[in-house]
Design goal:
Structural class: mainly alpha
Distance between the termini: 20 Å
Radius of gyration: 11 Å
Strand content: under 5%
Order of helices and strands: HHHHH
Largest sheet: none
Length: about 70
């Protein structure tokens, strides 16, 4: 499962909208949408905020498949 899919599942499991997630980690809603659509990846600060918010480790978010980012 790619990061985009994991992120969307984590958000939905926590009952958050994209806007609520964005507000919680100090990014825009469109940024969250881009991540979930595979159009970008979270930077180190955002990734740390996601890990803290969802109570997960970097290993749990890491994927075994290469990420596909559409430019």
């Amino acid at each position: 499962m790619e990061l985009k899919d994991k992120l969307k599942k984590l958000r939905q499991d926590k009952g958050l909208t994209q806007a609520q997630l964005a507000e919680a980690i100090f990014v825009s809603r469109s940024t969250v949408a881009k991540w979930e659509n595979g159009l970008g990846l979270p930077g180190p600060d955002s990734m740390a905020a996601l890990e803290e918010l969802f109570g997960i480790s970097q290993e749990e978010v890491a994927t075994t498949e290469p990420e596909t980012v559409i430019m």
